[in-house]
Write a structure and sequence with these properties.
- By secondary structure, the protein is an alpha/beta fold.
- It folds into three domains: 77 residues, Peptidase S8 propeptide/proteinase inhibitor I9 (Alpha-Beta Plaits, 2-Layer Sandwich), CATH 3.30.70; 324 residues, Peptidase S8/S53 domain (Rossmann fold, 3-Layer(aba) Sandwich); 62 residues, no CATH class.
- It is built from twelve helices and 21 strands.
- A seven-stranded parallel sheet has the order 7-8-6-10-12-14-15, sandwiched between helices. Strands 3-4-2-5 form a four-stranded antiparallel sheet.
- Strand 3 and strand 4 form a beta hairpin.
- Helix 1 crosses helix 2, helix 7 packs parallel to helix 8 and helix 10 packs across helix 11.
- The longest helix has 18 residues.
- The termini are far apart.
Amino acid sequence: MTPTRSTTVSLALAAALALVPLGSAAATALPEAASPATAPAEATDRVVVKFRDGTVPQGSRDGVYARAAERAGGGGLAETTTTADGAQVLRTGGMLAGAELEALTTALEQDPAVEYAAPDLLAGTAAVPNDPSYTTRQWSLWDDPAGLGMPAAWDLATGAGQTIAVVDTGITAHPDLDANVLPGYDFVSTAENGRDGDGWDADPSDEGDYPDAVLCPASPMPTTSTWHGTHTAGIAAADAGNGQGIAGVAPDARILPVRAVGACSQGYITDVAAGVTWASGAAVPGVPANPHPATVINLSLGVPGECPPVLQTAIDEALSRGIPVVVAAGNQGMDAALSAPANCAGVISVAATDVSGALAPYSNSGSVTLAAPGGDPYAQILSTGNAGAQAPAGPAYTERNGTSMAAPAVSGVVALLRERSPELGVDGIRAALTGTARQAPGGCAPGCGAGIVDPVSALVEAQGGEPFRTGGGIGALHRKIAASAGEPRSRELCALGGTPCFQEFANGWIVWSAGTGARWTTVLPAQWWGIASAG
């Protein structure tokens, strides 16, 4: 392929180099202050009721439930299943614990027809991975105002049968990725930039993007390689449930590594465009056909200025084939309309939020589609990496922050949507993402598009369901203040273990915790974890 312009593209790396440090190759601990409060084991949204034999006709059980709910001051109860011994399993509509849960079971047992009522305790869900870093360091996947709430989403989809193309610096071998990696391609066109002795070839291995004294003598980059492609691939689709490392957003999706960026974290726009074209399954002159076309393409890279025509053409080709293109908004702290590919037509552009759920200070904003966790220098995004300082060495786990980290999270969500609702086209996927996104705590004055992506709500919406139900303690309070609170604007978000819980409404938030019950707040502050235990 003959390059049509000499513009080069620099990665929207884990941070804007002049603004936010990249972070070291070795993983660093995240601050504990923002971790959700530890939850009691008794939090649940279901109770079990056993009636005495022959005491209650089947048609009158609803009356028992209604009277008990009224005595307990909660919402309605709905039968879901019957146990092997004939007991009824009831759904409360939301998580309950402590005094609220005890009040409900006590109210049920006050009816002489009830033999017993007990919580249907949560013994743990299979969707929560056993990867050791998930519960300790992958805050971006947790179910709270800053996280993606992945456990509930994984109950619906894991990305099986989907292919995420990562157009980036290539990939390195890693035990948390290898099982999911497909044969890719290297579109770095010059031997010097590719550091592999040739131009385009069938080996997408990352040879290291450390700065070169000849190619980029004034580079502000650290002298080490970033292993950027390996990091973004892990965010999107690292293996889960394998007892090691991390979990990706779409752990059963396949990764199609497409190398288009080399030394100095730079690559020609024409090479990037060729990579996008090939990833989509379209023909690229002189290159074998791609046997594994992508179902979503991720571009965690950027260049200032207008969208280059050659890149727009490649994106248009992908979109015409029904393949969404997800891109990083950029890390210059400006309007994303001034940076490509975020300003290319038809893309899903992603801003970055930090550990509190607020817009990250480095993130481009304004003209974006939505936002996702990208971290900050103090609470970064943990993912797969490499231990090599410059040339590749052994596998490692590294932390970085930037819109580069936010984009692959959304690409992973797209893979979940495509698995769950394969009939959705590009517009349908965009609608599911934006129609269910929630607002950042404290708001997002510069503009976060539709808000923070919410995977499980998007999956429910795509299936024609109601993603924003209310129930439990939050639902009970909302029924009392519905006129002033307004309609729900998000689902109920509950931290690891089931408490505290949060739900956004048109005019504010309801916060529920096992110790203090449900409370109304007009604004969810940036340090939202602090109000969970406040009096």
